[in-house]
Design brief:
By secondary structure, this protein is mostly helical. The protein has a domain of 51 residues. Helix content is 43%, strand content 0%. The longest helix is centred in the middle third of the chain and has 16 residues. The N and C termini lie far apart (66 Å).
């Protein structure tokens, strides 16, 4: 008798691929882990409250992933004081 549980397909099996973002590259953009975390969190909050996305993304992508991808692409930066 087959198992009643269905094994979910991996992203690769569904035809989806996730870009690998290097932590070192992200740190070059912000200068410190603290700034990176704050920037990503603030941008994720903005996206969650309805602000427009600055990059193309799938509807299934989480706001935190979108925020990190926006930082990586250079579309979101820390404002100079």
């Amino acid at each position: 008798m087959p198992c009643p549980f269905v094994k979910p397909k991996l992203k690769e099996e569904r035809g989806e691929t996730m870009d690998r973002i290097s932590p070192e590259e992200l740190l070059k953009r912000t200068g410190s882990v603290y700034k990176l975390c704050n920037l990503a969190a603030l941008r994720a909050i903005e996206l969650n409250s309805g602000m427009k996305k600055l990059i193309d993304s799938s509807p299934m992508e989480k706001v935190t992933t979108i925020a990190i991808r926006e930082i990586m692409s250079g579309k979101v930066r820390i404002k100079a004081a």
